[in-house]
Design brief:
Layout lengths: L1 E2 L8 H6 L11 H6 L9 H4 L1 E2 L2 H9 L2 H20 L14 H4 L11 H14 L11 H6 L4 H19 L2 H22 L8 H16 L6 H19 L7 H20 L6 H13 L5 H21 L6 H20 L7 E5 L2 E2 L2 E2 L8 E5 L2 H28 L9 H24 L1 H5 L7 H9 L3 E2 L17 H15 L6 H18 L2 H12 L9 H4 L6
Antiparallel strand pairs: 1-2, 3-6, 3-7, 4-5
InterPro entries: DHMBA_Reg_Transcription_Factor, Fun_TF, Zn2-C6_fun-type_DNA-bd_sf, Zn2Cys6_DnaBD
Keywords: Nucleus
Pfam families: Fungal_trans_2, Zn_clus
């Protein structure tokens, strides 16, 4: 037995952040001030002494020369950790930030890279916590020993993200190996009429699609990503309404429904009739608090079919196009006015110095605080859809300039165009205002902004009622980056973003790519810098000319 010194009596959060903990029950003051759950305190008696018998035996068996070299190697490893950068691509150092490295013990260097990668994915995408998880359905599916395909797919995504963060080719090789294994097992399961309907196989297909998002290096990844989405769509259609009876199946359907709808709008394709029937089925049994998601999906489905009809010239009358677009837009606004409290967000104004905001980390003079990542994602999808509607209205009005159609007078055209432009500008600003919550850009370290966030009056989006959030507002996660990418691309390429805003959005996407290991964000940033329209991102013409990052 060996004495290792007096252990800290502070709670876990205070130990990690090196804060002065007052040990109050049931929560310390630091956790109360940060509005997070205090995880309690350790039993110091159990920590005073630890059995090192195995360590002594192992050290005795090591040759003397290696024991002499040992301390030097450890010092080097500790130096690398303090800098947050690894010389060796296979080094098992920290994930990405200097803050995290300050509390990582040297023993963490011995963990296999696979365990570190899975832990990263677990913390950033799967766990609950105050901001809710994005893919919590993975946890029970991974515990099932029969779901070997989903475990391989999760390993592939986790290793790919970690490889991108660390710039480690060796880790990427392991990720590609896991991807090949997952793809093989998934294809084998798809041939089985029973296995192909299981939640584990559908989740594996979803993760294979996310792997393409993580490993994007050129324009050809779009083909593979669309292929995975179409495969997931087909699986959902085969599975039928029975999948909605399980929480995992319901979560999978809800997540995929939004992605498939948005991709079909951009590809100008009709919606899936099976998806529409399943959405109707959910609305009858859904929790009233979450029913807004299904109501939003129903309107988006109608918009999807409307855009497809306009493209195929099944609807050609400018008056009918504009009237239908305005009707859909009004329904969207009406729906979101009455969202339940758990889906609302608050607006925090930024202090201004000499007429300018005190930070460049936020675009504009305010930012949003949401109550969960799903809430932020829902609002940004809503804004993206409305931006598409405003674009459709403006494009239709432009086509009338050279026509002899007098159904809409000149003054009315000007009024409609001005209204659509102002609406789109506000929607673009709202998407950008959600970035600090999703990415934690520069807010946490700015004490002036932190104080303003605590003291500011929060203005609710619904009926002016104050909604005070009970969670710590800035806790970045990979799920936040994954869900904000497409709305940012829509905002940048909508035609309503100035050059400075486009550069700001490109920088946000670069941050997502480099700090969260999501390469598709880097591809999107390059699209913005090259001036490529966002709709072209999904067209065969663009995909036929792949680019390199």
């Amino acid at each position: 037995m060996v004495y290792r010194g007096k252990p800290s009596a502070a709670c876990e959060r205070c130990r990690q952040r090196r804060l002065r903990c007052d040990h109050r029950q049931p929560s310390c003051t630091q956790c109360l001030r940060a509005e997070v759950n205090c995880l309690g305190y350790r039993n110091l008696l159990d920590l005073n002494f630890q059995d090192q018998s195995n360590d002594v035996i192992r050290n005795y068996k090591v040759p003397a020369r290696k024991r002499r070299l040992g301390p030097t190697r450890i010092v080097k490893s500790q130096t690398l950790v303090s800098n947050g950068v690894s010389e060796d691509p296979t080094d098992h150092g920290p994930l990405c930030s200097d803050k995290a490295t300050a509390t990582i013990p040297t023993a963490a260097l011995a963990y296999p890279v696979e365990e570190i990668a899975r832990s990263y994915l677990y913390v950033n995408y799967m766990t609950g916590g105050p901001r809710c998880s994005y893919m919590s359905y993975l946890l029970p599916l991974m515990e099932d020993s029969q779901n070997s395909a989903i475990n391989a797919a999760v390993n592939a995504v986790a290793l790919a993200a970690l490889s991108n963060i660390r710039l480690s080719p060796n880790t990427m090789l392991k990720a590609q190996k896991e991807y090949t294994t997952a793809l093989s097992k998934t294809n084998l399961a798809l041939k089985d009429p029973v296995l192909c309907k299981t939640d584990g196989i559908l989740a594996a297909v979803v993760m294979l699609g996310i792997f393409e998002v993580m490993t994007c290096t050129d324009g050809s990844f779009i083909d593979r990503w669309v292929h995975h989405m179409e495969g997931a769509t087909r699986l959902i259609e085969i599975r039928g309404s029975e999948q909605l009876s399980r929480q995992e199946g319901l979560d999978l359907f809800t997540q995929l429904r939004g992605q498939v709808s948005l991709s079909r709008i951009y590809q100008e394709r009709y919606s899936s009739p099976v998806f529409n029937k399943l959405t109707e089925r959910i609305q009858r049994d859904q929790n009233p608090n979450d029913r807004v998601l299904d109501q939003l999906a129903t309107i988006v489905t109608r918009l999807t079919d409307f855009c497809a009809n306009v493209t195929r010239r099944h609807i050609v009358g400018p008056t009918e196009i504009i009237r239908t677009a305005l009707k859909l837009d009004a329904e969207l606004v009406s729906l979101m006015i009455g969202v339940p409290p758990s889906w609302r967000y608050t607006i925090v104004n930024i202090p201004v110095f000499e007429g300018k905001p005190i930070t460049k980390a936020v675009w504009g003079d305010s930012y949003h605080i949401y109550q969960s990542i799903p809430a932020s994602s829902m609002w940004n999808n809503y804004r993206s859809i409305r931006i598409i509607i405003q674009e459709l209205i403006i494009d239709t009005l432009k086509d009338l300039e050279d026509s002899e159609n007098d159904d809409i007078g000149l003054s009315q055209r000007s009024s409609l165009a001005c209204q659509a432009s102002q609406t789109a500008l506000q929607l673009v600003d709202d998407i950008c205002a959600s970035v600090p919550y999703n990415l934690d850009i520069g807010i946490e370290d700015d004490t002036r902004l932190k104080d303003s966030a605590l003291k500011a009056t929060h203005t609710s989006t619904c009926h002016g009622v104050d909604v005070v959030s009970t969670l710590s507002p800035f806790q970045a996660s990979g799920a936040g980056g994954l869900t904000i990418m497409w709305p940012l691309l829509v905002a940048a390429n909508s035609g309503f973003a100035c050059d400075d805003l486009r550069k700001w959005i490109a920088n946000c996407l670069d941050k997502i790519g480099h700090s969260m290991g999501i390469n598709q964000a880097l591809a999107m940033s390059k699209l913005i810098q090259d001036g490529v329209r966002s709709r072209a991102f999904l067209t065969p013409e663009y995909r036929s000319h792949p680019y390199k990052l």
